[in-house]
Structure formats: structure tokens, C-alpha cells
Amino acid sequence: MARYCEEKRKTAETEVLVNINLDGSGETNINTGIGFFDHMLTQIGKHGFFDLNVEATGDLEVDFHHTVEDVGIVLGKAFAKALGDKKGIKRYATVFTPMDESLSMVSVDISGRPYLHFDVAYIAHTTGNFEVQLVEEFFRAFAFNSGMTLHIKNMYGKNDHHIIESIFKAFGRVLDEATGIDKRIKGVMSTKGAL
């Protein structure tokens, strides 16, 4: 069965369309109007082996917050729907990923219980014209709309671009591992019989 979903959201501030195929090859088409954010979303698809299309328009003349958060909301919902009943998935994964001098850890439990622990210290307020605090907003929106427990920690780093990119690459890799099917799993990976 194909693990694919298309999800939309339209508000007075943004309009977002997401297509995701969890069993893809890492092909992406990302256009949010925010170059740095597009680059980071591409990392999720590429390193998670997800085919991912994101089209977003937003009130960028105000700031990037609404667009970044709403993409997280829509992508989180699409991810959850694409997973379906979660039968056979590994559910848990933890990945460490370097980007030059930076090293980040991302750990996930696709549990149905949304939670975000975000432990990242940045060097500056922005990287280019992108406010670094928006990274946490994206991951909070994703975690709470996908029903995922998500822990993100940057171990160390000196360049904000590298720190953020190591997180997004780790996130793609951890999702690939946690959504992987293990034929030994009968039903779902839970003693409760449901996720």
C-alpha cells in the first residue's frame, strides 16, 4: 500500500500545499519563498528518501513566521496521514549527524503523543535573512500535528547554518529509520496494540 498523502491549508496569512511519498527516492520540489527554508526542507526529503513537494505562499512582508509554522503544520499532518495505521513501522530511531564542525542528535518516537524537546544554542539571531528561532517553531508545528515525540539537541557547533543543516539532515534520516517497515513486527510496535 502506498504511503502517500496530499494535504492543504489556507488561511488569511498563508496557503500551503504538501505532497509526500514516504517510500520515494528523495526527489523534492520546494517553493516557500524563503530560500534558506527551502534548502532545509530539501534536506528532509533527500536524507529521508521521501518524495516531497511543498508549495507555500505567505505574508513574507510581515515576516517568515507564519509561513514556516504553517508548513510545519501541513507537513506534520501529511506525514501522519501517509503513515496510515503505522503497522510494521519501527517507531523509534535516534540519529547523530555531523555538518562540518557541528554535530546534532535527533530522536523520535512515532507514538501518537506529541512532544518537542529542543536544545539548541545559536551563535547569532539570523543566518542570512532567516531568524534562527523559527527552526524550533517549525519542529514544534511538525511534532504536534504528526503526533510525534521529538527530541532535538545540537551537541556543538560554531556556524548557525551548519548547526541548522545538521538538524534537518538528522531529521530526514531519523524519519527514514523510524518509518521503516520491519517484517518481524506484527501489527504495531506497542504492547497496547495501538499507536
Describe this structure in words.
- The structure is a single chain.
- The chain is α+β, with helices and mostly antiparallel strands.
- It has a single domain, classed as Ribosomal Protein S5, domain 2, CATH 3.30.230.
- It is built from four helices and ten strands.
- A hairpin with a 3-residue loop joins strand 1 (about 5-10) and strand 2 (about 15-20).
Quick overview:
With about 200 residues, the protein is of the alpha+beta class.
Question: Descriptors for this entry?
Answer:
Ribosomal Protein S5, domain 2; alpha+beta; about 35% helix; about 200 residues; 4-stranded mixed β-sheet; globular
Query: How many DSSP E strands?
Result: 10
Q: In the CATH hierarchy, what is the class? A: Alpha Beta
Task: Spell out the CATH superfamily.
Answer: Imidazole glycerol phosphate dehydratase, domain 1
Going across the biggest sheet, name each strand in turn.
Answer: 1-2-4-3
Structural class, by secondary structure, is alpha+beta
Spans where pLDDT lies below 50 across 5 or more residues: none
Kindly report the CATH topology: Ribosomal Protein S5, domain 2
In total, how many domains does the architecture comprise? 1
Quote the beta fraction: 25-35%
**What is the straight-line distance between the termini?**
19 Å
Tally of helical runs: 4
- What can be said about the biggest beta sheet? 4 strands, mixed
Q: Which geometry do the CA atoms define?
A: globular
In CATH, the architecture is 2-Layer Sandwich
